[in-house]
Specification:
Blueprint lengths: L2 H15 L1 H11 L14 H15 L3 H14 L4 H8 L5 H7 L3 H8 L8 E6 L4 E7 L5 H16 L2 E7 L10 E9 L20
Antiparallel strand pairs: 1-2, 2-4, 3-4
Length: 204
Amino acid sequence: MHGLMNRAVQDFLTVTYGEAAWRSIAAEAGVPERGFEALLTYDDALIGVVLRVASRRLRKRSSDLLEDMGTFLVSHPRMERVRRLLRFGGSDFDDFLQSLEDLPARAELALPTLDAIPRFVLRDDGRGRFLLTATYAIPGISHIMMGALRAIADDYGALVLIEAVEPAEGRPDDGESVRITLSLADFRAGRGFDLAGSGEGRGG
């Protein structure tokens, strides 16, 4: 897995729970003493170990921890580049959802060696209801999606309901899914965004 993804997990745990908590988690999980390097690659299994250790040490359910991480990846100022990559996909939440299948290609344009972006498939019933499925190396991607999608919906000012979908029995390779109901695309003013600026402030 690309080091950027591992580093994002490290940043989430450090910012949210403190440096001491991260160091104890990293030591038990076998993370290199200097932490994750953004330009290196790591075995996919390592980040899973980190998350399991974090869940136990922090006494948080894995699903809750992953959902919090999804929110962090979109909403924390340190992750502004992730937010901008996602917001570039559309002018409203519906457009954003429709753009997710192209997200890996957009990410690879920005960083050609970045091959650890989930692959998405979106099903749209045409009535504001969607089924979004992701295939990823780390189990629990649906919970990360829930946190990230709620945060990005808030960013757009949309009112949505997001629910995890139980995986089809005996079909683990089909990915993990969430069901999204878009109730109001313009529930309130969204957070301002433009390609040239910082994206701070509120705007329509």
